[in-house]
From TrEMBL, chain A:
Short name of one Pfam family: DUF1667
Protein name per its UniProtKB record: DUF1667 domain-containing protein
Top-rank lineage group of the source organism: Bacteria
Lineage: Bacteria, Bacillati, Bacillota, Clostridia, Lachnospirales
UniProtKB/TrEMBL annotation, chain B:
Residues covered by the FAD/NAD(P)-binding domain: 4-304
Name this polypeptide is given: NAD(P)/FAD-dependent oxidoreductase
Highest taxon above the source species: Bacteria
Keywords: Oxidoreductase
The UniProt record lists the keyword Glycosyltransferase: no
From TrEMBL, chain C:
BFD-like [2Fe-2S]-binding domain residues: 397-450
Start and end residues of each FAD dependent oxidoreductase domain: 3-352
Lineage top rank: taxon: Bacteria
Protein's recorded name: NAD(P)/FAD-dependent oxidoreductase
InterPro entries: BFD-like_2Fe2S-bd_dom (IPR007419), FAD-dep_OxRdtase (IPR006076), G3P_Oxidase/Oxidoreductase (IPR052745)
TM regions (residue ranges): none
Pfam families the record matches: DAO (PF01266), Fer2_BFD (PF04324)
PANTHER family: GLYCEROL 3-PHOSPHATE OXIDASE (PTHR42720:SF1), GLYCEROL-3-PHOSPHATE DEHYDROGENASE (PTHR42720)
Lineage of the organism: Bacteria, Bacillati, Bacillota, Clostridia, Lachnospirales
Amino acid sequence: MEKKELVCIGCPMGCVMQVEMEGEEVLSVSGNTCTKGERYARKEVTDPTRIVTTTVKVKNGTAERVPVKTKSDIPKGKIFGCLRALKNVEAIAPVRIGDVILKNVAGTGVDIVATKDVEAR
Amino acid sequence: MEQYEIVIIGGGPAGLAAAVSARNAGAGQILILERDKELGGILNQCIHNGFGLHTFKEELTGPEYAARFISQVEELGIEYRLHTMVMDIDRKKVITAMSREKGMYQIQAKAVILAMGCRERPRGALNIPGYRPAGIYSAGTAQRLVNIEGLLPGRKVVILGSGDIGLIMARRMTMEGASVQVVAELMPYSGGLKRNIVQCLDDFGIPLKLSHTVIDIKGKERVEGITLAAVDEKGVPIPGTEEEYECDTLLLSVGLIPENELSSQIGVTLNPVTSGPIVDESLETDVEGVFACGNVLHVHDLVDFVSEEAAAAGKNAARYVDKFLKKENIYGKEEADPYHGQSQAAVSLIPTGGVRYTVPSIIHPDRMQEEQVVRFRVGRVYYNCYINVYLNGERLLHRKRPVMAPGEMEQIKLKESWFANVPKNAEMTIQIEEA
Amino acid sequence: MYDVIIIGAGVSGCAVARELSRYQVKACVLEKAEDVCCGTSKANSGIVHAGYDAMPGTLMAKLNVRGNHLMGELSEELDFPFSRKGSLVICREKDGLHRLEELKERGEKNGVEGLKILDREQVLAIEPNVSKDVIAALYAPSAGLVCPFSLNIALAENANENGIEFYLDTEVQKIRKTELGFWVQTSRGDYETRYIVNAAGVYADQFHNMVSEKKLNITPRKGEYYLLDKSAGTQVTRTIFALPTNFGKGILVTPTIHGNLLVGPTAADIEDKEGTNTTADGLAAIAEKAGQNVSGLPLKKVITSFAGLRAHEDGHDFVIEEANDAPGFIDCAGIESPGLTSAPAIGEMVAEILRKKLGLTENPHFQGRRKGILDPSKLSMEERNELIQKNPAYGNIICRCEMISEGEILDSIHRPLGARSLDGVKRRTRAGMGRCQSGFCSPRTMEILSRECGIPMEELTKSGGESRLIAGTNKDSF
C-alpha cells in the first residue's frame, strides 16, 4: 500500500488530504472536509492533468507572438514535452481564437489552439 | 467640445463590462478611452487559464475572456478610442485626453465611469536594502515581457510575494526555460489562491517560504543574488536566519495599488484602506455622476467579480444619465428627484472585527435594489467563524464560514427589506466573529 | 595630443568642460560609465545651498556662494529646472539658539544675502508642517532646488556642442608624466595631453596619487535617501535642515524641483568606492530621524530609496589647484557637499587656471545657450496640439506616472550625448522615475531604445556594462 499526501485546491481552506493507494486503485481519502476534496484527490493521484498555456511566434502579424493553449487538459507529465514541441512553431497571421496551431501535441492527442486574434500586418 | 452621455476611463475588463451594461440599460452615447493599442487591459498579458468560471461557466484564458466582452462592445456599436491617454478630468466632468492622431482635446461627459485599474507596488515601497541593478522586475512587467514580447527577463529567478501574479509568473518563467529558486512571502499565509500554489509552485517543485523576506540585493550591474531571512510576527527579519540565493532576477509581487490619480483630480474622496474611491450602493463616488468599478475601486482576485461590479456601475450610470436628462429637459433644473434627493437616509457600513473595508461603504435605501452585494476582505486568516451584520444593534445576518483569508474577497447580500423605516444616518456594522 | 583631458563626466568635470569650451582648445572628457552623471552627481539632495555652512575663508565657502549666485542665470542659458525656494535650519532647543546665530554670522561673512532668524510663529506661518517644537529657524532665501541630472547633462551637452569631445565607457587606468605632459592609458586606448583635470569624484585621490607624492585621501561617505511620491511633495515648500551638530548636517526634508519629497541623507564612511547600496540600518535611521523637524511625514509614500557617495577628502575642503609636484595636473578633488551648488563656480575657476596656463583665446563659435528637452506640460493646449500635429510622437504617452511622451524620449536619445540605456532616458526625461518606478513604461522605453539605437533587446542595458535587462527569449534553452 502506498500513501500520498496532497493539498486540496477547492477553496482557501486548503485541506491536507491523505490518499491510500494500491497500485492505481484508491483505497481511501482522508483529511478532506467536503466531497469536492475527495473528487479532486482521486483524480489528482490517478490521472493528474493540466491545461498548458504559452505563446508561439507569429509571422506577418501585428503582434510578435500569439497566446495558445492545449484545447483540453493533458497529462501533467507531458507539460514540458508539449512546450518543447512548440519551441519552433510559428503561426501565420491572421490568427483567430480557436485556430489549431499544432495538432496532437507531444502525442497527447490534444491540439494547440490560439487564444487571441492576431491580424495580418 | 465633444459631448457624451457616459465616458468610461479604461478599456480593461471593468470598462468593457460597464460599457456593455450601460448600453443595455439604455445609455446612448458611450465612449471608452483606452491608453493601450487594444481593448482588454491587463487580460491581454494574462495568457493563463482560470478566468470566467462564474461568468461563462467555463475556464478561459485572459485574452479569451476579454474577447467575449470586446465582441459585445463591437456588436453594440459602442465607440472606443485606443492610444488615448486621459490627462485630466475636472469636477464638471470635462475630460482632457490626448492621442497621436487627435492631439489634445476635451470631452464633456454627463457621467464618468472610472475603470483605470491598478498598478504594482514597486520595490521602493518595500525599502529592501541593497544595490539597484538590472534584473529587478515587478511580476506584471515580467509578465508583459514574457507573454507579449517573448523575452525572458532572467534565467535564475527569486520571487518575493506570493500574490497570484507572482505565483503565475513562477510557472510561466519555468515553462519558458527559467529556473525559479524560491518564492518568499512576508506574511504567514499566501496572498494567492490555493489552486495557484499547487499548480504553479508544487507542480514544479518550487518552494514557498512563508514569513520570509528579502533583506539584501547583491550585484551592482545585474542582480547576482539575494539574501532571504525569516521574519517575526511583526515582519522584522530574525538575525541568524539569513540564507543566500544566487540568482539573476528578482520578481516582486508585493501588492497592487488602485490607480486613482485621475480620481483625485476630480475631487473624489478615497478610502485609505483600499486606496480606491468611497462609493455608495450605486458605485457612485462622492462626486455626483462619477462612478467607479473594478481594480480602481478595490483590488479584486477574480475578474468575474470585476465584470459583475462594473456591470452594476454601468447600469447605475445609465440610470443617472437618464434622470439627469429628465431633470434638465422635463422636470426643470430645480426639481428634486428620488435619485438625487438628499431626503432619505444614508446608512454607513462600518467594517469592524476583522473586516478591513467594505465596498460599498454607504447605502441609500431609496436607491438600492432588492438585494445589494457588499464585498470585503478580512485582515487575517479565520477558521470556523461567522460573518455578522448588525443594523442599529440588531443582528440581521449570522453566516458560518469554515475559512476566510485576506487573499480571497468575500461577499454578502443585504436585503432591501432590512432598510425599511431605517432612521437617518443609521450605521450598519459588518464583523467577523470567531467561534 | 590634447590640450586638456578631463577625467570624469560628473557635474564638476562637465562644468569645467563647458567653461573651457568658451576657448579655442582641444579637449576631451573621459568617463568610465556609459553616460554622463553616473557617480556622486546623480545621487544627492539636489539642493542649491545658500552658503552658510562652510567656514569663512575656505574654498567651499567661496565657491558655494559664487555657485549659488551663478545658478540662476546658468539655468536660463542652459534650460534646466532651478528654483530659489529658500531653506530653513530648524532649532528646537534653547541651547541651539547660539548655534543658529553662529550660522547666520558665518553665512554673512561668506557673503550670503538675506539671512534672517525667524521666530516660532514666523516659521509655522510659512511652513505649517514644521515640528511644533520649533523655537526659531535660520531662513535663507537664496537657497534653491535644482535637478542634478539636468544640470550635469546640460553642461555636458553644451560643452559637447561647443567642441569638447566626450569618450564614454572609457575608464582611465594609468597616468604617467611625459616630457610634454601626460600619457593616459584607458580601457579604450591611450591618450596624450598637456593638462589633466582630475574630476574623478571618489576616485580623484587614486589619479592624483599616480602623479603626486603629496597624497590625497578620499573617503566615500555614504548618504542614503528616501524619495516620496509627488502626493507628499507639498509637505514642505522649502528645504528643511536640522541644526548641524558635531556629527554633521543631519537629515533634511525637501521638496524636489519636480515636486517629490526627499528625505535624507545619512552619513557613513565606507571603504568601497562603488558602495552605492542602501542598508537596513541606513534606511531605518532616516525613518527614525525624519520626523524630528517635520511632522506628519507620510513615509508610506516612499517610492524608492537610494544611496550616493560624497567624495570626502581628509582636509574637508575642495582641492582645486595644480598639484605642486606635477605641473599640468589640475585637481578638482574632494568635491563633496556643496559640490553641486559650487559646480558653476568650479567650472569657472578651473577654466580660468587653464586659460592662463595654456594662454587660451576665445572660441568665436561658442554658443552658450542650450535648449533642453521640451516639457510639453508647460505648453497650452493649442501649443501642444500644434506640437503633436508636427510630431505625433508627442501625443503618445509612454510613462504614465510622469506623463512623459514618446517625443521627449526620442529627443533624449537623439540629442548630443544622447541616452543609450534605460537609466539614461530616465535621467533625461523622468520616464520611469514616478510612482510605479518604471514598471509600466520600461518595456515600452526599451522598445523605443532598441528601435532608435539599433540595439537588440537582449543587448539593452539599464545603465551600461553588464546591466543587461533581458537574458534571452522564450524556450531558447529547450
